[in-house]
TrEMBL record:
InterPro entries: ARM-like (IPR011989), ARM-type_fold (IPR016024), PP2A/SF3B1-like_HEAT (IPR054573), SF3b_su1-like (IPR038737). PANTHER family: SPLICING FACTOR 3B, SUBUNIT 1-RELATED (PTHR12097). This is Phosphatase PP2A regulatory subunit A/Splicing factor 3B subunit 1-like HEAT repeat domain-containing protein. Keywords: mRNA processing, mRNA splicing, Nucleus, Repeat, Spliceosome. One of its GO terms (molecular function) is mRNA binding. The keyword Repeat applies. GO terms for cellular component: spliceosomal complex. It comes from Candida albicans. Belongs to the SF3B1 family. It is found in: Nucleus.
Length: 1090
């Protein structure tokens, strides 16, 4: 086939190339699949257990009020249906097992003998087999016909000619296709899903429906303004707002529409709209009524596609509505709890907390009797999910209303003989209550502990294993909550629990072990139970040692947690090495444990530390050091974690360590550090901990450590160089301790680090700068002056260009290093060099990270102390004219630090002179600088500048600008707080003058301004005394206007909270009132006689 000739066009072609066009079309093609962020939310935020809330059939008909008897009948029917389904399933499983038994499949096929069958039976069986084969053949031929002929299928019915003849009335004729008609091969095949596709396959959700119905979704809802979006799902709940006509509605429908508008504004509105709508809905909740509001909110909460923000807003809305409606919510308790309770097990802790508060508020509003009658049918529900939620709700109810009123009901539930599920749920209520209160917070339970233990004693020997297990776990949780008290109450159940340990295996044994393990610390706290403690500890350790080899993860976690709480000692178990330490190391210190979950490894480290403290520390350390040279990296890492834990908590134990173990320890940690492939911080931390603990004893090993570090400093991999630099930063102080007055080793390291400052990787460069900082900080000040290769005069100019590096780690390390040089060896550097560095530091004040800005501000102080504050202050004052607020604030902080370092008299005249410039930013910056300055200074220095700065503050407090008055009030607050108890009567006039200027500002409405004003008034009250201060507020407290009284009462309340006793002599004298001459109000007890 000849190639097609393309037409030549002489005109310029300005379109994009075809290849690029195709790529763009692919990129912007319509995606009908579910968005990735939504899928991630579904996968991450909701596990399968949480998704069960969407699988429940919930009827939200608020008009339908079922009686307790009807609900109980429904629950019984559900239970019977589940039992029947279970029996059918067991029967089916039994038949399939008999047919598909593998042993029977291996036997040779037996031929049927026909002699034992009558002719009629044989004929009947033959007909059945023929019919089955015919059905198979007809089905397969039908499917083949449908696929080949592309016959359409509607609702599972294939529209073949024979079926169409039966459906259509007589008279229809089949029309033959035109002669030149050709079937399109790309036509979709017929829908054979009903015939061949199994329901086991999962089809991912699509967004095809969105494309179909987007035309119906309005962009603007009539009568509702301030919406940020309106989704397709919203049409289901807010469709009436779009289609209804207000003139044709009655009063009830109008009320419903108004409520719907407010709910939509809260759900989809902008922040301002949401706030207004929420306030309006809360204020009018009683007017709308619970039925109207719940009809709008509850169905939306059941929507699976709610975003976390929408869900948070709706839950918040329900909480406020319940608070407003109070008793009116009582008839709808069941519906609210059904919708809200699944959020108690949500992944988000904030949602769980909000839901808990809502249920607590609902409990107070509805009352205990109503809650019990609502939730009683769910105590023995067939679904474990519902029972779990019911237990959590009852736990919140018990915590809200107190155990005194709740315990009788709980006792009745746990004594239930009907079925084990009710008893299980009742015990779980106590468990959830303990979990909610938290470990060591059992003060609410302690008064009722004996009653609770008495209730839980019978279920220990229950016929159901689930009940026995949950009882043991609940008692363990109870013991942890009331720890270290309450062993007297637990004494009656010690014997049943101990017998239970002997009878159980597996998870049941783990729960009983956990129970007795939680009670032994309570025994050890009470000296009367010393014999009990010793007996149970010894016996329990025999069982735990036996279970060290258990493959069950729950059992391993349980015994590790128990070990950490046992009061072990060498006297109690003399042969600890053979009976405990050896089996423990063999069972847990292996590669399987090291590759296990993070939780297991953390528990192993904690248990190892506990055993080392209780028995022989150095012996355990010697056991662990062996694993630092293992071939498995995970086991080496586990050993490093354990060594770090052991030494950091018990460094004094290393005093008795011999030189051989000393060498093994350093050698093992160094080997693990060298052999790591995944670079982690724990190796550096462990090295630092070991170096600090050994201190001078590290001297024999310094050469091997430093040779390793220097070798790794030249490695090709950036991560290895970075770790080597970090290690130098850690051990530099120890090198100084080991070398005493000889700094030659540190000077060599400084030279190597100085030569490495040309590093291209910013992370490595930051670590090199930190190492250089540590080495220079460790060297004596006299050595710094004489240091020649490199000298400080060489190091500082090298750092100047590094200051321009944009990487945060490099910036922070470089600024700190410059500050160190300014602090320790500033005299050898030229003043011009310092000014050049100051200009570079000004840029650092714009940094995003706060730590960099703090380091830059501190360095300004060191430089100002070196070269004098005049030049630095001039440069900083020029910086106040810039537009960026953050830069101005940091400049003000730097000025405050300079004033603190060089004393205020060197800085304050220049700052106050700058205030004369009629520019708001400059004046505000000066006030901020004064605020930071007086915040840092103490009262002895502050009081000397009171009279000098008063005219400036007077001008600021009478300025029209709110920010000026706010900042000036902050300055006065810091001044007054500094001068409490340090000023005499000569200074009181100044503070009274300040109070006269501040008091008119108490009517400001801006929250930022009024908080600063009230702070400054409180501080002035403490300086001038309550007597003078109260004269300013008596008249305002009893003013006829409410808006005048409110701020005065706020001031008085603060004074009353802080100085209630000091206010008593200052109350006004009221001996009698004009209208009541006969009654005397004189209180002689309040008179003070001198």
């Amino acid at each position: 086939m000849a190639p097609i000739e393309q037409k030549r066009n002489l005109a310029g072609n300005y379109s994009i190339p075809d290849s690029l066009n195709k790529e763009l079309q692919k990129e912007f093609a319509e995606d009908v699949s579910t968005p990735m962020d939504k899928l991630q939310d579904d996968i991450i935020n909701q596990n399968n257990y949480n998704k069960k809330r969407f699988q429940r059939s919930i009827v939200l008909d608020l008009d339908e009020q079922k009686s307790y008897k009807q609900i109980m009948n429904e629950r019984n029917l559900e239970r019977e249906e589940l039992l029947v389904e279970k029996l059918i399933k067991e029967k089916d499983d039994g038949t399939t097992q008999t047919v598909e038994n593998p042993q029977e499949r291996l036997l040779p096929r037996k031929r049927k003998k026909r002699w034992d069958m009558t002719p009629e039976e044989y004929k009947k069986q033959k007909e059945c087999e023929n019919n089955k084969e015919l059905v198979k053949k007809s089905t397969s031929s039908l499917i083949a016909e449908l696929v080949e002929g592309k016959v359409p299928v509607v609702r599972g019915i294939p529209l073949t000619d024979s079926i169409l003849e039966k459906i259509l009335p007589p008279g229809y004729v089949k029309v033959n296709p035109p002669a030149h008609f050709k079937q399109n091969e790309e036509t979709l095949p017929p829908d054979l899903s009903d015939a061949v596709v199994s329901s086991d396959y999962y089809l991912p959700p699509t967004n095809e429906s969105v494309g179909i119905s987007t035309t119906e979704i309005p962009t603007d809802v009539p009568g509702v303004k301030g919406l940020e979006f309106f989704k397709e799902e919203d049409m289901k709940y807010f469709g009436k707002l779009v289609h209804s006509k207000p003139e044709s509605l009655n009063d009830e429908e109008k009320k419903e529409l108004n409520a719907m508008k407010l709910v939509l504004k809260i759900k989809n509105g902008s922040p301002v709209t949401r706030k207004r709508a929420m306030r309006q809905l809360t204020n009018n909740a009683a007017k709308f009524g619970p039925k109207v509001l719940l009809n709008q909110i509850l169905p939306i909460l059941l929507e699976p596609n709610l975003t976390p923000q929408e869900r948070h807003l709706l839950i918040k809305m329900i909480g406020r509505i319940i608070y407003q409606l109070d008793e009116l919510i009582r008839p709808y308790t069941s519906k609210v709890l059904t919708v809200i309770s699944p959020f108690l097990i949500d992944e988000d802790p904030t949602v769980r907390l909000e839901t808990r508060e809502i249920i607590s508020g609902l409990t107070k509003a509805a009352g205990l009797a109503n809650i019990i009658s609502t939730l009683r049918p769910d105590l023995d529900h067939v679904d474990e999910y519902v029972r779990n939620l019911t237990a959590r709700i009852f736990a919140i109810v018990a915590n809200t209303l107190g155990l005194k009123s709740f315990l009788p009901f709980l006792k009745a539930v746990i004594k239930s003989k009907k079925n084990w599920t009710a008893r299980h749920t009742g015990i779980k209520v106590i468990q959830q209550l303990c979990i909610m209160l938290g470990r060591g917070n059992g003060t609410a339970i302690l008064p009722y502990l004996a009653n609770i233990v008495e209730i839980l004693k019978p279920p220990i020997n229950d016929e159901s294993l689930q009940v026995r297990t949950i009882t043991a776990l609940t008692l363990a949780q109870l013991a942890e909550n009331v720890s270290p008290y309450g062993i007297d109450s637990f004494e009656p159940i010690l014997e049943p629990i101990w017998f239970g340990i002997r009878k159980h295996r597996g998870k049941g044994l783990a729960s009983f072990l956990k129970c007795i393990g939680a009670m032994i610390p309570l025994m050890s706290y009470d000296p009367n139970y010393e014999d009990y403690t010793n007996y149970y500890t010894t016996e329990l350790m025999h069982i735990i040692t036996r279970e060290f080899r258990s493959p069950d993860e729950d059992m391993r976690k349980t015994i590790l947690r128990i070990i950490m709480g046992l009061p072990l000692s060498r006297k109690l178990i003399p042969d600890y090495e053979k009976s405990i330490i050896g089996p423990f190391v063999n069972a847990f210190w292996n590669r399987r444990t090291a590759s296990d979950s993070v939780q297991i490894t953390r528990l192993v480290v904690e248990a190892t530390n506990h055993l080392a403290i209780k028995f022989d520390f150095l012996d355990m350390l010697e056991h662990i050091v062996y694993f630092t040279k293992d071939d498995n990296e995970q086991l080496r890492k586990l050993a490093i974690e354990a060594i770090n834990k052991l030494i950091s908590n018990n460094s004094q134990e290393l005093i008795g360590m011999d030189s051989q173990l000393d060498r093994k320890l350093v050698d093992g940690v160094l080997f693990a550090f060298q052999k790591q492939t995944i670079h982690q911080k724990i190796y550096l931390t462990c090295f630092g901990t070991l170096a600090d603990a050994l201190n001078v004893r590290l001297k024999p090993h310094l050469n091997s450590i430093l040779s390793t570090i220097l070798y790794r400093m030249k490695n090709k991999l950036a991560e290895i160089r970075q770790q080597a630099s970090d290690l130098i930063a850690i051990i530099a102080p120890v090198i100084k301790q080991c070398s005493e007055h000889d700094d030659e080793l540190l000077m060599k390291l400084i030279l190597i680090l100085y030569e490495s400052l040309g590093e291209v990787y910013p992370e490595v460069l930051g670590s090199i700068l930190n190492a250089l900082y540590s080495c220079l900080d460790s060297i004596d000040k006299s050595t710094l002056y004489t240091m020649s290769n490199p000298s400080i005069n060489q190091i500082l100019p090298t750092l100047t260009p590094i200051l321009k590096n944009r990487h945060e780690k490099v910036q922070e390390a470089c600024i700190k290093l410059v500050g160190l040089i300014a602090r320790k060896n500033s005299e050898t550097i030229n003043a011009k060099e310092w000014m050049r560095i100051c200009f570079d530091l000004l840029e650092m004040l714009k940094a995003q990270r706060k730590r960099i800005r703090i380091a830059a501000n501190n360095t300004f102080g060191y430089i100002a102390k070196t070269i004098g504050p005049q030049d630095v202050i001039v440069m900083l004052l020029n910086n106040l004219r810039v537009q960026e607020r953050q830069l101005r604030v940091c400049t003000a902080v730097a000025m405050g630090i300079v004033a603190e370092t060089c004393l205020p008299f060197t800085v304050l005249p220049a700052i106050m002179n700058e205030y004369r410039i009629p520019e708001k930013n400059v004046q505000n910056g000066v006030l901020k600088a004064m605020s930071f300055m007086f915040e840092y200074l103490d009262g002895k220095i502050t009081k000397d500048y009171l009279f000098a700065i008063t005219p400036l503050l007077e001008d600021a407090l009478t300025d029209r600008d709110l920010v000026h008055r706010q900042t000036a009030a902050t300055v006065i607050f810091h001044i007054a707080m500094n001068c409490i108890g340090l000023t005499d009567k000569d200074y009181s006039d100044v503070f009274i003058h300040y109070l006269n200027l501040i008091m008119p500002n108490i009517f400001e409405t801006s929250p930022h301004v009024i908080s600063r004003i009230l702070e400054s008034i409180d501080a002035l009250r403490l300086v001038i005394g309550n007597g003078v201060f109260t004269n300013y507020i008596w008249s305002g407290l009893f003013h006829p206007a409410r808006k005048v009284r409110a701020p005065y009462w706020k001031i008085f309340n603060n004074a009353y909270v802080q100085c209630s006793d000091a206010l008593v002599p200052c109350y006004p004298r009221i001996e009698s009132l004009p209208d009541e001459d006969e009654i005397s109000y004189k209180l002689e007890e309040l008179d003070l006689f001198l």
